[in-house]
Amino acid sequence: MPERDYLWLNLRDLPYFRAMLRAVEASFYQQLELPRPILDVGCGDGHFATVAFEAALDVGIDPCVRPLRQAVRLGGYRMLVQADGGRLPFPDGLFGSAISNSVLEHIPHIEQVLRETGRVLKLGAPFAFCVPNPGYLAELSLPAWLRRLGFTKAGEVYRRWFRRMSRVFHAEPPETWQRWLEAAGFRLEHWWHYFSPEAMRMLEWGHFFGVPTLLPHALSGRWILVPRRWNLALTERLVRPYVRFHSHPQGTFTFFLARKATE
After folding, report:
1. Distance of alpha carbon 64 from alpha carbon 49, whole angstroms
2. Residue 15 confidence (pLDDT) above 70
3. Which of 29, 133, 159, 202 is deepest in the core (most CB within 10 A)?
4. Cα–Cα dist 233/242, whole Å
5. What CATH number did the domain enclosing 123 receive?
């Protein structure tokens, strides 16, 4: 169990299904040594960095302006740059380490982004990232229910819809990521699965239960209007049993630690 309550730190600001996943991921970074300067590839609104790291990261990049403005307000980075991960505006070998948290699965030109990330890292620099694996789609609850009722094709339609809705281009096994990493000049040191099938199904339904948060977010920029324990007590009680801060052999997401090859 981590020293900080990463579930609450996320739950007070995010829809519960995101908070569950981000809490587990934040705990993993506490185990890593990340030499500075640190690059965050796909920093988004910067919320994750402010929760997972006590000190500001050196540089965050993202192609979208709107989340970068929020990241400026949150103060989790010393520098923020609008840039595509496939064309990083930095010299070779600048960074001591890099992270990318639940971002790479959304990038169609993933191999180009991996090459660019490797280019701007120093020799031997670690690169930590996490992404969904095939279990992300295989463990969805609704297709399983539909299959038992004899509506297998309807289940596959839902699975494809869910993938498009969550904008996941890549839900690959470790072997595929290892091939991509090695082609980009990395050596894969370690990986582990996390986030159980049961937790994944809670995440799945959170996309539907979280619909009421869309309006306040559109109007105020906040997902949670009253971020107090009393307001979120029932939600916290329901989801906390699914938040496990360790690996899971059938986990639906995978955390990777790679290193820029020295040869």
Report:
1. 17
2. yes
3. 133
4. 15
5. 3.40.50.150
